[in-house]
Amino acid sequence: MEFKRNILVTGGAGFIGSHVVRLFVNKYPDYRIVNLDKLTYAGNLANLKDIENAPNYVFVKADICDFETVCQVFKDYAIDGVIHLAAESHVDRSIKDPFTFAKTNVIGTLSLLQAARLAWDGQWEGKRFYHISTDEVYGALKMDGSFFTETTRYQPHSPYSAAKASSDHFVRAFHDTYGLPTVVTNCSNNYGPYQFPEKLIPLFINNIRHRKPLPVYGKGENIRDWLYVVDHARAIDLIFHEGKDGETYNIGGFNEWKNIDLVKVLIRTTDRLLGRAEGEDLDLITFVTDRAGHDLRYAIDSTKLKTELGWEPSLQFEEGIEKTVRWYLEHQDWMDNVTSGDYQRYYEDMYKNR
Ligand code: NAD
Ligand code: DAU
Fold it and tell me: Is 165 a pocket residue for ligand 2 (Cβ < 6 Å)?
């Protein structure tokens, strides 16, 4: 079958990537979606079970740092668009192991940029390299009602955000130097189904269920700006198709929560959905040593995206949290598979003999 477009999604077995792959595979049957993922601890093909046999979906197990293989994938599948999500994404891990973050997030991004440049060779018409980044590159805000805009100075604090910032600079450098048709977006904290349970929301829902302590860093006063992951995927779809070359768009839902208040909402919602007395698990909250270099506050101003492309989040936070808690409670098998490590065998069972 001849496809209208051939899109390489990197990191499609991860949290956000799996939502992007699902959206594109279902919405665009005339596009071929090539999901390239190394399947690190964060990659889980069970996240894509519902679409793994779709005729317009291909999975390639590879490392974005492996330049030769990436070049071959561009050739084999006539790639004309890239949506680049593959990254090491957890701040706490980056504090322990910064090298892996520099390698994947910086060198991996450079490898993809160079492969795209060589494959497209100046024929930029109809091509797009879309790099998914984070609001953490902007550093931390004070508790003063200010926002990150697209022109806020980069001031990353963690090895994770420093590596993401560096990758953003490389993407812009390839646009300015070679004319590569790039677009960059910087998004706030995502939440929703299929998030690896090392991140606050799935970790805490699972701990509440099992009545395990909830390790709140510092005094729980840090603020994050939360967006439902499906709304991020919708924004990515819109920007991939309608964003302007060379531009940056901030993505966020104007939805700031102090960690401790968010944790209390999680406890009340989880208790209620488990048929416990609402708030009965509040005593699981345990204040622990703060994260090193812990950014105080993030808040995204996504006015540009709304004004220029008409994007708005579709879900209110209360609705999104309810859906999310319900999803994790109803998918205990998914959670058990991840926490036991069984998910890492999915690839062997599913793909080895294809
Ligand atoms: P994730 O950790 O859940 O998934 C990352 C995926 O990348 C995994 O499937 C993993 O196997 C794959 N991967 C890692 N290293 C690889 C390599 N060397 N080669 C190929 N694949 C590799 O991450 P996520 O939370 O879904 O984030 C996806 C992207 O969105 C990242 O670039 C992240 O910086 C960005 N982002 C995340 C958030 C958030 O709140 N989670 C917010 C804004 C931006
Ligand atoms: O802002 C976007 C970023 O959001 C993404 O770029 C990152 O990939 C993503 O991991 C996320 O980073 P955070 O560090 O904000 O997410 P995390 O879920 O790790 O932590 C959310 C907040 O909760 C943060 O202030 C630290 C705190 N926290 C986290 C954990 C895991 C705790 O208090 N206790 C915990 O156990």
Answer: no
